[in-house]
Amino acid sequence: MSLMIGSVGTHGPVRQRGRLAATTLAATLAAMVAVLVVVTPAPAAVGRLVGAGSSRCLDVVGGNSATGTGVQIWDCNGQPGQSWNANAAGELRVFSDTRCLDAFNAGTAPGTRLVIWTCNGQANQRFTLRSDGSILATASQLCVDVTGQGTANGTVVALWTCNGQPNQRWSQSGGPAPSPSVTTSPPPGTCNAQPVDPNATPAARRLLCYLYSQYGNHILSGQQESTWVGGPDYEMNYIQSNTGRLPAIRGMDMGDSPTFGSRAVAWWNAGGIPMVGYHMGAPNQSQDGYNGSLLTANINAALTPGTADYTRFLQRMDAAAAQLAQVQAAGGAVIWRPFHEAGGTWFWWSKEGGGQYIRLWRFMFDYYTRTKGLHNLVWLHPYNGQPQASFYPGKAYVDFGGADTYAGDHNPLLPMFNTTRNIYGSTIPIALHENGPIPDPNQLQSSGARWVLFNTWHTTWITNTSTNPISLLQQVYNHSYVITRDELPNLR
């Protein structure tokens, strides 16, 4: 077009004078302007883009117009870093149209950072504002996503598989965005995941729905606590001091600390998720905790009313129930993972085979939900590293399942994941409920190992830098695929 303008100026009838010359020139310029408008349409003002899940605006970090600056959500404030213009080329421009929303380094994988960059017309700067409120990236066919369904100021915005959740829906007004016509993973509170306890509390239902919503999209970080080394926050403090983050899930154990209830409540109120197991001592003797759990029991006697084993079994279940009830009274929910490492030959509950194990599981489920009135539990069925279908209590007693291992060199553990999924089916979330080395998030994504959470074991499993180097912790806890406590939605 500049060449056309030059032609008119150099070779046109510049010596003509009067109305005719002016009219001819005006008509020519008008025609050229019309062509210009067709080829490069003027940006159409959109203004702010407000997230349906957070009611906060799509925002350039720090209001900084430098290329490579990331985007986040922030309180709507009308500043230039929140004023976006869309044009027919599919660009989302900001800072008076001098910068474009850009998939960093032309990335097309889920988790690719979104930044601003000098507008260049490339495919990684093209987006479609769809009728369901989502913003689709042309090159990757991924959606603009508030990571981890976060709602707090400063939550990072990146690209992720389109799923119709509120953290992927945007509008100018900040009101409810249109409901998507197809949703593969509905938002918490409206999902189709039905808890196995029909009387589950609202908090338990929200927690279960959230787990379903993240399955295949992110992995929740978890850390098992110890209570005997530097206080109960020893591991949490270690992670926070080295990464600036806290795990989404705090792992606890009734056998290690029979007064976990108050810490579970505090963790829940701080925005985290408590997950509780129990190294329960064999019911035919008096020793509880880890050492007692390694002894041999008589499961028939433990399940027969009137026996001393039955009395001890109920006493131990009652003690754990009292702690879980504290969380329920405070409005909290718990991932409950009893009788863990199912199928192993080391804990008494698995030594007599799958049939006896299933009897124990179902007895506890009925006792807790019907007799003790515990309805704030999301029931996690936890296999060992070699899952066996004969130890599965069935869909009516399990909200989601998992497996564990302390092996591996930060690999995604795909064979164990696949074996576990083959037992539970393709829809139920699957957890890595205990681990030593933390799997590499990049390998988790590239391999398709869709673990919904990991839970690193305590003390030297997390603090030994040969097992989990600090550089790895920093990578994991600041990775867009990994959910930390500050990125959890409000489940309360």
TrEMBL record:
<feature type="active site" description="Nucleophile">
    <location>
        <position position="434"/>
    </location>
</feature>
<dbReference type="InterPro" id="IPR000805">
    <property type="entry name" value="Glyco_hydro_26"/>
</dbReference>
<feature type="compositionally biased region" description="Low complexity">
    <location>
        <begin position="173"/>
        <end position="184"/>
    </location>
</feature>
<feature type="region of interest" description="Disordered">
    <location>
        <begin position="167"/>
        <end position="197"/>
    </location>
</feature>
<dbReference type="Pfam" id="PF02156">
    <property type="entry name" value="Glyco_hydro_26"/>
</dbReference>
<dbReference type="InterPro" id="IPR035992">
    <property type="entry name" value="Ricin_B-like_lectins"/>
</dbReference>
<feature type="active site" description="Proton donor">
    <location>
        <position position="341"/>
    </location>
</feature>
<dbReference type="GO" id="GO:0006080">
    <property type="term" value="P:substituted mannan metabolic process"/>
</dbReference>
<keyword id="KW-0378">Hydrolase</keyword>
<dbReference type="InterPro" id="IPR022790">
    <property type="entry name" value="GH26_dom"/>
</dbReference>
<comment type="similarity">
    <text>Belongs to the glycosyl hydrolase 26 family.</text>
</comment>
<dbReference type="Pfam" id="PF00652">
    <property type="entry name" value="Ricin_B_lectin"/>
</dbReference>
<dbReference type="InterPro" id="IPR000772">
    <property type="entry name" value="Ricin_B_lectin"/>
</dbReference>
<dbReference type="InterPro" id="IPR017853">
    <property type="entry name" value="GH"/>
</dbReference>
<protein>
    <submittedName>
        <fullName>Glycoside hydrolase</fullName>
    </submittedName>
</protein>
<feature type="domain" description="GH26">
    <location>
        <begin position="202"/>
        <end position="486"/>
    </location>
</feature>
<dbReference type="GO" id="GO:0016985">
    <property type="term" value="F:mannan endo-1,4-beta-mannosidase activity"/>
</dbReference>
<keyword id="KW-0326">Glycosidase</keyword>
